[in-house]
From TrEMBL:
The chain crosses the membrane at residues 6-25, 37-58, 70-93, 105-125. Signal peptide: none annotated. It comes from Lentilactobacillus sunkii DSM 19904. This is TIGR03987 family protein. Keywords: Membrane, Transmembrane, Transmembrane helix. The keyword Cell inner membrane does not apply. InterPro entries: HsmA-like (IPR023813). It comes from the Bacteria.
Length: 127
């Protein structure tokens, strides 16, 4: 296993860790807080970094990445970015009710993000 692949696996796994901490910390606290937004942001940065590294590996390889993985992966990053921006908006300008209910959106984003994450794991184990 080469160093680029190891780095990509570690960064994408760190994205999972940070994003999961943010989502479930928010659920547990009962309201959106700055620390959760920071976890969302760090998770997004790690995901973008790992995805960029994985893309460079895929581009230099003869292996074809399934279109579904590409589409869900790109959609997940866009959704995570939107989630991060929307969380900041809700924290600073949103109502108390929106801060309390934001965790529902967070969970949906997290669950969607798991689709390309798990697909990548499965593809990596079968190749």
């Amino acid at each position: 296993m080469n160093i680029k692949l190891i780095t990509a696996i570690i960064t994408i796994s760190l994205a999972l860790v940070f994003y999961t901490i943010g989502v479930f910390s928010e659920r547990k606290s009962g309201s959106l807080k700055l620390k959760q937004i920071l976890f969302f942001g760090v998770g997004l940065l790690f995901d973008m970094t790992g995805t960029t590294i994985m893309s460079s590996i895929a581009n230099s390889s003869a292996t074809v990445t399934p279109m579904l993985h590409l589409v869900t992966g790109m959609a997940a990053i866009i959704l995570m970015a939107f989630h991060f921006i929307w969380a900041a908006y809700v924290l600073w300008l949103g109502s108390k009710k929106s801060k309390v209910n934001f965790h529902k959106f967070s969970l949906v984003v997290w669950l969607f993000w798991l689709i390309p994450y798990v697909a990548g794991l499965v593809m990596g184990m079968t190749s």
